[in-house]
Amino acid sequence: MRNIYKVYMLSSLLAGVMLCGACSDEKELTGKWKLERYETSAGDVCEVDSAFFNFMKGTFSMICVCPDDEYVTFFGNYVLHDDVLDINLRSGDVEKYGGLFRKYLDWDGCSRSFQVEGLSRRDLQLAHGDSVLYMRKY
């Protein structure tokens, strides 16, 4: 009986450790990020100082500060699974502010899947094809 209890406790502990490992990426991602630059598939490096991303429990928002000191917010949701981050934006936001959307993100639709190339408490690096976004925790 004692051995069964030990096996149960060890398997419960192992399951808990595995779940915490999966949650740690989500915990690191949660919060506000400032887009510093992105590299396009053409090899151009674009410095950005006016785009902010927010990830919170599956909800996504992006704030773009415009040259006239106004701002536009895009809303959507995201799913982080292993090293893949899927972001889906509301189509109405993209249709209304498409020019800003393409300027800051270089996207051609409302959804995009990113490969998470780097994620720490301070830095986030997302890749899609040959394009890479570099962010810092805000």
Mean pLDDT across all amino acids: 80
Order of helices and strands: HEEEEEEHHEEE
**What's the total count of β strands?**
9
Fraction of residues in H or I helices? 25-40%
Largest sheet: 8 strands, antiparallel, barrel
Number of helices: 3
Low-confidence stretches: 5-22
The radius of gyration over CA amounts to 19 Å
The shape is globular
Fraction of residues in β-strands: over 45%
Q: Structural class of the helices, strands and pairings? A: alpha+beta
Neighbour order of strands in the largest sheet: 1-3-4-5-6-7-8-9
- The CA-CA distance between the termini, in Å, is 53 Å
Determine the oligomeric state from the structure.
single chain
Blueprint (SSEs and pairs):
Elements: H1 2-29, E1 31-39, E2 45-47, E3 51-56, E4 59-65, E5 71-81, E6 84-89, H2 91-96, H3 98-105, E7 111-119, E8 123-128, E9 131-137
Antiparallel strand pairs: 1-2, 1-3, 1-9, 3-4, 4-5, 5-6, 6-7, 7-8, 8-9
